[in-house]
Amino acid sequence: MRRTLVRTRILRTLLIIFIAWNLIELHLTLRRISEVDIIYREQPQRNERIYIASVNWNSEWILRTHWSQALVELAWKLGPENVYISIYESGSYDNTKDALRELDMELDRLQIPHSITLSPVTHEDEMAATPGEGWIETPRGHMELRRIPYLARTRNRSLQPLEELAKQGITFDKVLFLNDVVFTPNDVFELLDTNDGSYAAACSMDFSKPPNYYDTFALRDASGNEAIMSTWPFFRNAVSRHAVKNLSPVPVQSCWNGMVAMPAAPFTAKHPLRFRGIPDSLASSHLEASECCLIHADNPLSVQDGIYMNPLVRVGYSPTAYVAVNPIMNWLSARSILQGLWVNRIRRWTTSTWLKDKLAQRRIDRWAALSPENKEPARLCIINEMQVLHAQGWDHL
Question: Taxonomically, which superkingdom (predicted)?
Answer without folding.
Answer: Eukaryota
